[in-house]
Amino acid sequence: MSSHPKPTSSFKAALNNKFTQRISQYIFTFGLAYFVIWLSIYAITIITTPVPVEYREGAILLTTGYLLKGMNPYSLANQPLSINVYGFGYNLVVIPFAALFGNTLAIHRIVSIICLVLSGVIVGRWLIWRGTSTLFALSGGLLVLAGLLFYTTPIARPDALGIFLFLTAIYLPERYHYHRKSLIISSVLSILAFYTKPYFILSLGIIATYLFLFISKKKGLLYLGVTILLGLIIAIPVRLLFECYFLDTIINNISLAGRNTHFMVMQLIFFTLAYLPFGLIVLIAYPNHSSERNNPTHESTYPPKTPGKHLMVWDIDKPFIPFLFDFSWFSFIISTLAFILILGQHQNNYLTYMFQIMTPFGVVAILQHLRSNNSFSVFAIALVLINLFIFCRWILYPNDWRPYQAHWDRMEKAIKGSKKVLNSPALAAVLLQMGKPIFDSGESEFFYLTKPYPKTIIAPDFYLVKQREIEYSAMIEKDIASKKFDQIIITEDKTTIFTRANIMQNYIYQQTIPLDMPQTGQMWNVDVWIPKK
Fold first, then answer.
1. By the 8 A CB rule, do 64 and 101 touch?
2. What is 322-344 written as a DSSP string?
3. Residue range 146-164: average pLDDT?
4. I need a labelling partner for 343 at 20 to 30 A (CA). Which of 5, 64, 134, 471 fits?
5. Which pLDDT tens digit goes with each residue over 364-405?
6. DSSP structural state of residue 150
7. Cα–Cα dist 415/427, whole Å
8. In whole angstroms, how far apart are CA 523 and each of 55, 210, 396, 410, 514?
């Protein structure tokens, strides 16, 4: 009997054909080059946009300004204007550049974009270390960067620096096989991430849990204990020097946290659809990778698998579970649980948490087995390029502000001659860059939303906080009644920290100006009021 090759074998042989592989590599190279250019232009547009691209972007410039002047933004006397619910890590990094080049939106955004690019580099290097080919590693970094350029992450906010610290704190221990030095550096980075944006302390939970379960219970407990101890030591001078720091970054965030399960589920659905082509790589390539893959460079350096089928509860030097689970998949699972149980139910950040803490690990987990010369690389290349196209075409907002320039010019013209403007948060950054005082940073209202809390060593007594709220509002209301503001510009249909009735009694409505912020898809109508004669 004559034997005939199976259709699937012929198809696989066609995919392995040198010509097919070469063509796919050319397509992949030119495709990635195109998206490098596209994302670079997108990032440059963010940096060069001279107006705010998010409602509360000016609040971060205010904190940097306070620190540049040697003032304490976390003193109770400077609240609620100077409240910063994120942390001062990002501002400390920006300060040297702001001192040299000015406390501007552009300087803050440049720092953010650099941090995001470095985060993409971390992912790319992680993939190369795991044995992924260079082009697939580059595509992984671009996929992560595309997600991180979405919405508020790349602007004048601490998110970008927090992501870089978060990823580095997780990457280094695995890269250096959980050696002591890498764990010490990871511990420090986790604390720095916490002081940049509190939820990035998740890196501590990921590393400590993985060490305990799969490497060594002793290492996991030591890592956790040392990091907590170091964090407490640092917290003492922070609390003494900045009396409202933990009020702003912890207690206020707890007060602001939402609980909307529907919102969380809708984000999960969108996230799944956004990465659907990329996710198909798991179905196409993974069933076949084991027979085609080369040994990844990191595999021989993993701690050896512990024989046995039972949990090892009592031996402190051994892991709790007698087999090794892939670290990138583990990090993705823990991050997803953190999103589902906590972060995803908070309504003020649409999709950004997912792109920040889930996407990097998902990218590493899926691309880690791909080589440019295996039979299924042709499919993977197509799916990666399709997913990058989806992000650039449909997920990232068109961020060109020039079509709306006339409105911003009109707004700036309206306030240019005024010395004292009671401002909408949308104008905080503009006023700061003009050297004019601001009265509402955008985060100021968060101070008023603080819920009662018991007496604690980490924050001033609650009655002192309420007293400061009353004092600040009374000061503004008095100036409104006395018509000391040259103009009052407030956001239409938006809660303010002062009463509209007082404004209507002493000021005359003049005009409404729409202010578009295309990077975040926001548009705010602001009402301009002038004093009655």
1. no
2. SSPPPHHHHHHHHHHHHHHHTGG
3. 97
4. 64
5. 999 988 876 566 788 899 999 999 999 999 999 999 999 999
6. S
7. 10
8. 9, 44, 16, 15, 7
Report the C-alpha gap between 215 and 195 in whole angstroms: 28
Alpha-helix runs per DSSP H in 130-179: 134-148, 159-175
Tokens of 511: 């005009």
Residue 3's contacts (CB-CB under 8 Å, 6 or more residues apart) are none
Look-up: residue for tokens 């039972």? 310
* For residues 450-479, average pLDDT: 96
Sign of CA dihedral 188, 193, 199, 205: negative
CB 518 within 8 A of CB 468: no
Mind listing the pLDDT tens digit for each residue in 272-299? 999 999 989 887 766 555 444 444 444 4
Sign of the Cα pseudo-torsion (400, 405, 408, 413, in order): positive
Taking every pair of C-alpha atoms in the chain, what is the biggest distance, in angstroms?
Answer: 106
Tokens found for residue 177: 């096989």
> Do the Cβ atoms of 57 and 157 come closer than 8 Å?
yes
pLDDT tens-place string over residues 212-262: 999 999 999 999 999 999 999 999 999 999 999 999 999 999 888 878 899
Residue 514 φ then ψ, to 5°: -80, 130
Q: What is the chain's alpha carbon radius of gyration, rounded to the nearest angstrom?
A: 26
DSSP secondary structure code for residue 294 in this structure: P
Q: How far apart are CA 62 and CA 72, in angstroms?
A: 11
Q: How far apart are CA 190 and CA 91, in angstroms?
A: 17
In which element (H, E) is residue 487 found? strand 487-491
3-state helix, strand, coil in the chain (%, to 5): 65, 5, 30
Domain ranges of the chain: 7-48+85-290+327-395, 402-531
Buried/exposed code over 138-167 (b: 16+ C-beta within 10 A; e: otherwise):
bbbbbbbbbbbbbbbbbbbbbbbbbbbbbb
Q: Find out whether 300 and 326 touch, Cβ atoms under 8 Å.
A: no
102 burial via Cβ count (<10 Å: 0-12, 13-18, 19+): exposed
What letter does residue 299 receive in the DSSP assignment?
A: G
> Between vectors from CA 434 to CA 431 and to CA 438, what angle results, nearest 5°?
30
3-state secondary structure of 174: helix
Phi and psi at residue 470, in whole multiples of 5°? Answer: -65, -45
The total of other beta-carbon atoms located within 10 Å of residue 244's CB is 28
Task: Please state, in angstroms and rounded to a whole number, the distance separating the CA atoms of residues 159 and 468.
Answer: 29
Strand ordering across the sheet containing 507-517: 421-422, 487-491, 522-531, 507-517
d(CA 157, CA 60): 6
DSSP assignment of 336-403 equals HHHHHHTGGG-TTSSSHHHHHHTHHHHHHHHHTT--TTSTTHHHHHHHHHHHHHHIIIIISPP---GG
